[in-house]
Design a protein that fits this description.
It is built from two helices and no strands. With 52 residues, it is mostly helical.
Length: 52
């Protein structure tokens, strides 16, 4: 679900940039970058239940 939200956020960012709103596009790009980094850290810090 959060990947869908990230995709929609990036889509809104691209639409804002295409319409010429530079400040909105920059702000949304920063928010989407932070959100993407949060998704990455969420998955990167999970321990894998491996048993050898």
């Amino acid at each position: 679900m959060y990947l869908t939200a990230l995709f929609l956020l990036l889509t809104v960012t691209l639409v804002a940039a295409a319409r010429g709103s530079g400040r909105a596009a920059f702000g949304l790009a920063i928010v989407s970058f932070v959100f993407a980094a949060g998704v990455y850290l969420h998955h990167a810090t999970n321990t894998l239940p491996l048993s050898f």
